[in-house]
Amino acid sequence: MQQQTSNQATRRGPLAGVKVLEFAGIGPGPFCGMLLADMGAEVILLERAGGTFASQLFGGGRKAVANRGKQSLCIDLKHPDSKALVNRLIGQVDVLIEGYRPGVMERLGFGPADCLAVNPRLVYGRMTGWGQHGPLAQRAGHDANYAAISGALDTGRRHGGAPWAPPTLVGDMGGGGLLLAWGIACALFEAQRSGQGQVIDAAMCEGAALLAHGLFNLNAIGAWDGRCALDTSAPFYDVYPCADGEWLTVCPLEPQFYAAFVERLGLAGDPDFAGQQYDTARWPAQKARLTELFGTRERAYWLEVFADTDDCVWPVLSMDEAPQHPHNRARDSFVEVAGIVQPAPAPKLSRTPGQVQGEPPLQGEHSRAQLLALGLSPAEVDGLAAAGVIRCAG
Predict the structure, then answer these.
(1) CB neighbour class for 198 (10 Å; exposed up to 12, middle 13-18, buried from 19)
(2) Which of 84, 90, 202, 335 has the fewest CB atoms within 10 Å, measured from its CB?
């Protein structure tokens, strides 16, 4: 695992030279900004004094992983002198990211029409749960709500059990921030040819549905009906507890992997396992046998049994264990930034790889530098700080 702290002035990556203005928010918006920063974009985080709910939930300052590589500019958007300042910024950036409810940016005077009038090439990224229009557009919600409406959350249930999914992954991060980053990349590519910006309406509920496209495919052909190999009905696609309370994932879907799996466990001649792999009538008995068997020994024992095989048996690692796994260490899949172990930038590019461009900033840490770069004089910056328009860290 590497420790990464880069110089903000020497950004590297495929998006080096792209400038982004991110209106501070929570969840998918900051994640989108982090993805762009990891790939070399200069992301100016427009923060408001006092922080956001995100800073309360995830920690602020150097602990805010989603803010790594960004520069913090703290401006009071309600101050009458702030609009001209923000418009100067908008005129110099390539991308804007906001995650407010529909209509909020318009009321602040920074809606798409206002901003595109200032900068016609601007890619304007909007991140909401329900989208900019529709019956739910003005309603509150969170990750599981968006995943629920999309149909994706229901697929996360264990067979016969309650539906759930890992928190924030399906709606917020995958269906939200990741899809917004993809839309921004597409719009930036198109703007190079047309010279025109555009507005991206990214809705987490739609992104969550898109992530579940393969499951909708299975449903359409009648294969998502409680006898599907992927919904934990099958004994060969599930998790099993070991004697020490640790867990294994068991996923030998393909016939050749399943045959090797059964052979490795000494069950090839067992009557419960005789016959076809997809004989669903046998699945309950097979699952009971596997649960009993895996529960007799510790996880380390079973990992040794399945070492160097294609039986698709792997440990369920905790967030503390994952960075130490030999595979993750070999690929530098995790990095340490400001004392916090966190996932490294991904995916890996061969010629212009992304990297963590710097530590998460303190609120207002770059206010002075950013405004001086805009062309303001030191005296003007001091005046804005004294008037409460901006806040500078330290």
Answers:
(1) middle
(2) 84
- Edge-first strand order for the sheet with 340-343 is 2-3, 334-337, 340-343
CATH superfamily label, 2-213+329-391? Crotonobetainyl-coa:carnitine coa-transferase; domain 1 (3.40.50.10540)
* Rounded-to-integer distance, Cα 164 and Cα 146, Å: 12
Provide the annotated active-site residues: 142, 172
| Domain range 247-315, CATH architecture | 2-Layer Sandwich (3.30)
- 189-213: average pLDDT: 97
Average pLDDT over residues 170-184: 97
The label of the residue with tokens 């318009």 reads 106
Euclidean distance between CA atoms 304 and 2, whole angstroms: 28
- Which strands make up the sheet holding 238-241, listed edge to edge? 238-241, 247-250, 313-315
| Partners of 335 in beta bridges | 2, 342
- Strands 247-250 and 238-241, sheet pairing: antiparallel
217's tokens:
């495919």
pLDDT band with cut points at 50, 70 and 90 for residue 9? low
pLDDT at residue 128, as a whole number: 96
Cis peptide bond prior to 347, omega within 30° of 0: yes
For the chain, the C-alpha Rg in angstroms (whole number) is 25
Specify the DSSP element, H or E, that contains 71.
strand 70-75
Give pLDDT tens digits for 213-258.
Answer: 999 998 898 888 766 788 888 999 999 999 999 999 999 999 999 9
Q: Where are the domains of the chain?
A: 2-213+329-391, 247-315
CA atoms of 2 and 276, how far apart (whole Å): 47
CA distance 288 to 273: 12
Average pLDDT over residues 58-71: 90
* Alpha helices (runs of H) in the chain, residue ranges in sequence order: 28-38, 53-58, 82-90, 104-108, 112-118, 143-150, 179-194, 204-211, 213-220, 255-264, 283-294, 299-305, 326-330, 367-373, 378-387
Does 117 score more than 80 pLDDT?
Answer: yes
Question: What angle, rounded to 10 degrees, do the helices at 28-38 and 179-194 form?
Answer: 60
